[in-house]
Task: structure prediction
Amino acid sequence: MRYLPHTDEEIAEMLQAVGADSIEDLFAQIPEECRCRVRLNLPEALTEWELNAHMDGLAGQTASAGTCKNYMGAGSYEHFIPAVIPHLLSRGEFVTSYTPYQPEMSQGTLQGIYEYQTLTARLLGMEVANASMYDGASALAEALLMACRVTRKNRVAVSRAVHPHYRRVAATYFGPTGYALEEFDFGKDGRSDPNAFSGGKDLAAVAVQSPNFFGGIEDLAAWAEAAHAAGALFIAAFTEPLAYGLLKSPGSLGADITCGEGQSLGIPQSFGGPGLGMFAAKMEFVRSMPGRLVGKTTDMDGKTGFVLTLSTREQHIRREKATSNICTNNSLCALCAAMYMAVLGNTGFKALSKLNLDKSAYLKDRLAEKGFSPAFSAPTFNEFTVKADPDFETRRRALMEKGIVAGVPLAPYYPALSDHYVFCVTETKTQDDLDALVSEVTS
Amino acid sequence: MTESIGTTGLVLNEPLLWEKGRMGRTGYSLPKTDVPSAAIDDALVGEGPDFPDLSEVDVVRHYTRLSQWNFSVDAGMYPLGSCTMKYNPKTNERQAGLPGFAGAHPLFPETLCQGILELMYDLERHLAEITGMDAVSLQPAAGAQGEFSGMLLIHAYHKRNGNPRSKILVPDTAHGTNPASATLCGYKSVAVKSGAKGILTPERVGELMDEETAGIMLTNPNTLGLFENHVKAIAAIVHDKGGLVYCDGANMNALMGIVDMAAIGIDVLHLNLHKTFSTPHGGGGPGSGPICVRRHLEPFLPVPRIVKTGETFGLSEDFPESVGKLHAFFGNVGVMIKAYSYILSMGPDHLKKASQLAVLNANYVKERLKGVFHLPFDAPCMHECVFTDKHQAARKVTTLDMVKRLMDYGFHPPTVYFPLVVSGAIMIEPTETESKENLDRFVEAMTAIASEAGENPEGLKSAPTRCKVKRLDEVTAARRPCLVEPPALKGEAPR
Result:
């Protein structure tokens, strides 16, 4: 086997050095009743070439951007990925290193993550960002828990316009804690409804997503004010960070914690993971944050270098008193996002963000002309919700056969919103694609 | 001694991204604007992110230079204990990058994603077979989330039986994530002291186990690299009081095809695909931490679950007792693809052989170094062995000094100062993918450092000397944290 370098002679020499007669002798300490009794029932080993054929077959039975025109977003977005990113990201020095516990030998990862933290903080308008969480959903769950720690209160309120999966993950995290997680409704305009939200002295946090699950851009400044008036922290969540190339950042609008999914930033969709949990906060809360942090410092000669820092928050030092149990995070995905932000730069990020708005607005307008009117009046970015005819679902199913996936149906998540669909348009679709979609959908 | 592989070479300095940029450069090929410009309310529009503008060449040089400051498994031996830094096969990267996988949207209807669902279904079955357990969820995104999921399952199980219980036993050799995961689930950790031989004793567990205790979180082999010989008796004690046994499977690389985790009394364990199953660590993730359970915990597994009906694969939410969702979608699928490729490449015999050779390598290093460094538990080890700095303490040389010096010899240091039960621990996990000659070089380097500790202890204090930076001031980094680069002052144009 090509991954196992030992020759029979070497094994014999090593056994002799160890003082064992056979490899089985090394396991003599394991009681008989603990042993596997039969050979593992697994497929026989494949050659590299057999594996390629097998995997090509499985991949071929899965639709992808290359085989279909997909107009779904909902937390996973199709964006162009410049060739430099997979090229740089596949360097073994980045891919096959561990968490940078030994900084002298890990300066590449450390500077790269320090830059990621800075880029993220600037994108979101926040003072500090961590080195990553698993995904947008666990980032929100951890943000809500962090707010309970910071405020020493035990109730959080999350808008129903937040991604339904994120709310379910938060509910899982809150299940055994004894803290209360409440949801509040959205209004007719498709934005979180201030009238549906109740404050109260025990409220630790209010969480709102923008753009929200329906694509609507929330009034974050008003929500920050409402949360703060209730004595709670304001958490701004997101699934599409590209929006902040155009829109005012959550930090500039008063968010205390901003968290969400960073898959849009150069990371392949990969059937939903790995993505990137982005997590940023005000500096005053840094010691309550979950996750790793890289800091800038100097070495014995006064030269600039980087280290993991503030680790007394973390499980490997603090054990049961840690701010989170997270250890391995999504570091390589964070590095990927940093590369993507570096490639685009200020100019490119703004331009791409605007292009997403333009393309999405084009489809929204064309569909509206054909009777698929926007369901909500709130302004939108690259996703929007339409109300369709009751028979549209049949047509949508038929379009899949033609390789078109026309939006995400809302009915499974919001029974009251049957016949509502969220469409997503990114820079990957041309005007011709959009015109073709309109004619297919309305024919 | 053979010539050291550690040497100096030209690495290039590289500033932060902001110091390189020039306004007006671009590294991105912007798609054409073929639709009219859309109006947007000015009140919504911000200034845009304060990012530098760089050319494509700037970005390529930047990250290429940064990469050259990292040590990696691709470059050399990385014997970090409990982390299983084995070789990461390159074919796995090819498979995960196939367009059909990398470009798949997680909300595609089942008819459009049969291939990836089949892969995930089969991976679950293979992991169940390797561990001896009955059912698997691939959803946890890393080991710690796997632990948390396991705790949630235990909580849900006890809750159904009327009392979720309040405490959990955690051995003093456990990874820090174990008590942290228990806390996240509302359990108070009760430390169990290891016995004189470095393993748990049934007596000690018996004294602590009661009907308010939800169970025990053990690691087998434990973090001293020792097999918990009494695991079956301990499981019986825990089960007798209605508790459950959680196993941290971080060290599963010692046991594939050798130990049946169900037979030893484990109710739930997590695996680290980024350890045992060869997927790369990526400088700290992404990982994947599937949980494997016995039949009685299956109803509580996270949803959606992958189900097979006839020849069709689907996703089902129809598990009313499930603890819920842990990930926005299905977990780190890109990582699962690599682990699946590894299992298929190895087959049943080579997986077992990998565990055997991992154990052989660790024992070989232990035997060759045990005259040089203090070995607190002189017993046959599994996949890793733990030494200490006791012999060098008289010269005021510490574990930290010695492992920093190891960098100059061209090796990544072992895990240090863990487990906490051993003072000045040096925890070495060579893994099966290191050849005998690499182990010999490593032993030579460690032996040479021990000699240096005797002859020139002061010299070790300035190690490493061959890395890009010397030892870093971690105290100031924590006291006056600088975690993001401050923005350039107004009027201060980028260079």
Notes: Chain B has 14 helices and twelve strands. Chain B touches chain A through 202 residues (CB under 8 Å). Confidence is low (pLDDT under 50) at residues 491-495 of chain B.
